[in-house]
């Protein structure tokens, strides 16, 4: 539960053919390649890291989230071979509201293989059960049909459009909002 003040643990989680591993600095080179993919880079709020030192700073920020009890980050790797297939995060965890968000990205060579669905389902279960987070949200640009499919296949209900809620290099964009409650049936 989120009620104490100790740092959050980021457990290793088995998710079907994939393993969610706590983010670490050893992931920097793999993550730099993943985040340089245009579809993933464009979905990151803020500037995407473009060098190994920037990637280490990006990782440092995420490693502080469990300390501040505001989020958890994992790499998604194949159970056999340990290849980086994607990332998944539970972030913006707000203890008082029992709410948070889930973000994810899948490497281009692993798309349409259930990576994001497996990872999102596993993190949804973990956040609802182990941390007693009641409400989780996923938001994406309306044109991102793949993210919409992942969210709905994981049991996240469509709640509507958040006008101008996302920021891009060109300004602001609308976001499609999905939510999953602890009381919802899990996919």
Explained architecture:
The protein contains five helices and eight strands, in the order ββαααβββαβαββ. With 187 residues, it is α+β, with helices and mostly antiparallel strands. It has an eight-stranded mixed sheet with strand order 1-2-3-4-5-6-8-7, sandwiched between helices. It is globular.
Question: Which terms summarize this structure?
Answer:
globular, 187 residues, alpha+beta, Aminopeptidase, 8-stranded mixed sheet
Overall radius of gyration: 16 Å
Tell me the span between the first and last alpha carbons: 23 Å
- At the first level of CATH, what is the class of the domain at 13-138? Alpha Beta
Give the overall shape, derived from the CA principal axes: globular
What's the CATH topology name of the domain at 13-138? Answer: Aminopeptidase
Q: Percent helix among the residues?
A: 25-40%
Q: Please state the average pLDDT score.
A: 91
| Number of distinct helices | 5
What is the fourth-level CATH superfamily of the domain at 13-138?
A: Gcn5-related N-acetyltransferase (GNAT)
> CATH architecture of the domain at 13-138, please?
3-Layer(aba) Sandwich
Question: Which sequence of SSEs, written as H and E, runs from N to C?
Answer: EEHHHEEEHEHEE
Major beta sheet, specifics?
A: 8 strands, mixed
Backbone structural class: alpha+beta
What is this structure's SSE topology?
Blueprint (H helix, E strand, L loop, with lengths): L12 E3 L2 E5 L5 H8 L2 H4 L10 H13 L7 E7 L5 E11 L4 E8 L8 H15 L5 E6 L4 H9 L3 E12 L2 E11 L6
Parallel strand pairs: 5-6
Antiparallel strand pairs: 1-2, 2-3, 3-4, 4-5, 6-8, 7-8
Helix pairs in contact: 1-3
């Amino acid at each position: 539960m989120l009620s104490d003040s100790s740092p959050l643990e980021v457990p290793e989680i088995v998710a079907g053919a994939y393993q969610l591993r706590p983010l670490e600095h050893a992931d920097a080179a793999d993550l730099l390649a993943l985040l340089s993919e245009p579809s993933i880079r464009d979905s990151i709020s803020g500037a995407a890291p473009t060098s190994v030192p920037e990637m280490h700073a990006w990782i440092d920020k995420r490693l502080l989230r469990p300390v501040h009890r505001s989020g958890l980050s994992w790499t998604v790797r194949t159970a056999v071979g340990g290849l980086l297939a994607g990332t998944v995060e539970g972030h913006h965890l707000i203890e008082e509201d029992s709410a948070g968000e889930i973000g994810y990205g899948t490497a281009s060579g692993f798309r349409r293989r259930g990576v994001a669905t497996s990872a999102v389902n596993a993190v949804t279960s973990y956040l609802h059960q182990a941390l007693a987070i009641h409400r989780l949200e996923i938001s994406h640009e309306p044109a991102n049909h793949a993210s919409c499919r992942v969210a709905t296949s994981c049991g996240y209900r469509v709640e509507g459009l958040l006008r101008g809620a996302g920021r891009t290099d060109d300004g602001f964009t609308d976001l499609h909002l999905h939510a999953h409650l602890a009381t919802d049936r899990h996919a």
